[in-house]
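Query structure, 322 tokens:
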């Protein structure tokens, strides 16, 4: 369809698995070596978030704030007023949960140029359990005016999202994970903030994903194809501002829409898509995600299956909607 971004070769789940948090740490070091005006804050989790790579390369520009996430956000907001670009990292549960008031007041209200890169989001945190599996962060962050939200699907996209965050003026939230994700983008892929990407073209049902949800949608499209159902897969890495125009244009050429995310089924990607289409183009919509539950301890793949965030669940939802 004219005007829409389409993935090139490599827009399909393959055998390569990548660490998004390693890609983040590596990109911080690259930016530092390129002379980027950045400083990095962490809340005693640098080894887990991979900001330890930057700490080793640029110790004078790295600040371990200890288990004081609220103070870390306040310090980063204050640093931003001096002209540097602060990146701050911790687990998603702490960055968006424990520190929410400070993110809203110190970063949001003042529209400070702070980059929040949170790791360990979603069910794939695994054995750490429900207390650490943040399934609400997209919903919390999208309610803050002026906050840009990115949920990359693989390491290739993560690196580009971090570089975008650095040059963008204003607060950014980037959602990363503990577990490795399948590589779905080709090396020549170019992330463009605010643009959704067509990963596969069909005509019957539109599958919309972000983060791991897009890999799941691509696998679901294969399952549907075996049953004679042609699915378009739309990857929406920028959760906010959302690519409303592409969604509506594609929705008008399909019979139903299914969303998939490693997050509560309401409030995040599914909520955004449902809100847009209910106003602009009412049609059958199904949302695949966690159904108003907390997580629990277990292997990532078993948790995804237990909570119905799988290719089979997306395919079933598509058939139901059709």
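Result returned for the query:
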């Amino acid at each position: 369809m004219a005007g829409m971004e389409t993935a090139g070769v490599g827009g399909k789940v393959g055998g390569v698995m990548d660490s998004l948090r390693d890609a983040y740490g590596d990109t911080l070091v690259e930016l530092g070596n390129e002379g980027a005006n950045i400083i990095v804050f962490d809340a005693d989790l640098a080894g887990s978030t991979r900001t330890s790579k930057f700490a080793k390369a640029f110790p004078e520009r790295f600040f371990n704030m200890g288990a004081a996430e609220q103070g870390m956000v306040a310090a980063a907001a204050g640093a931003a007023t001096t002209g540097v670009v602060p990146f701050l990292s911790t687990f998603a549960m702490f960055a968006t949960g424990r520190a929410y008031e400070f993110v809203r007041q110190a970063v949001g209200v003042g529209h400070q140029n702070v980059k929040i890169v949170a790791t360990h989001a979603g069910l794939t945190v695994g054995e750490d359990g429900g207390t650490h599996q943040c399934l609400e962060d997209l919903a919390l962050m999208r309610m803050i005016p002026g906050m840009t939200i990115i949920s990359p699907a693989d390491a290739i996209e993560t690196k580009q999202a971090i570089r975008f965050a650095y040059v963008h003026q204003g607060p950014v939230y980037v959602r990363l994970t503990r577990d490795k994700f399948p590589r779905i983008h080709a090396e020549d892929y170019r992330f463009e903030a605010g643009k959704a990407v067509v990963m596969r073209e069909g005509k019957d049902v539109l599958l919309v994903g972000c983060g791991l949800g897009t890999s799941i949608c691509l696998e679901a499209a294969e399952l549907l194809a075996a049953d004679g159902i042609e699915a378009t897969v739309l990857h929406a890495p920028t959760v906010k501002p959302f690519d409303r125009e592409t969604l509506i244009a594609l929705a008008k050429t399909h019979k139903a829409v299914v969303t998939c995310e490693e997050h509560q089924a309401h409030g995040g990607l599914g909520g955004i898509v449902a809100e847009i289409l209910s106003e602009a183009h009412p049609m059958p919509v199904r949302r695949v995600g966690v159904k108003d539950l907390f997580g629990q301890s277990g292997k990532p793949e078993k948790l995804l299956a237990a909570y119905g965030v799988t290719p089979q669940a997306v395919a079933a939802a598509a058939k139901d909607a059709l």
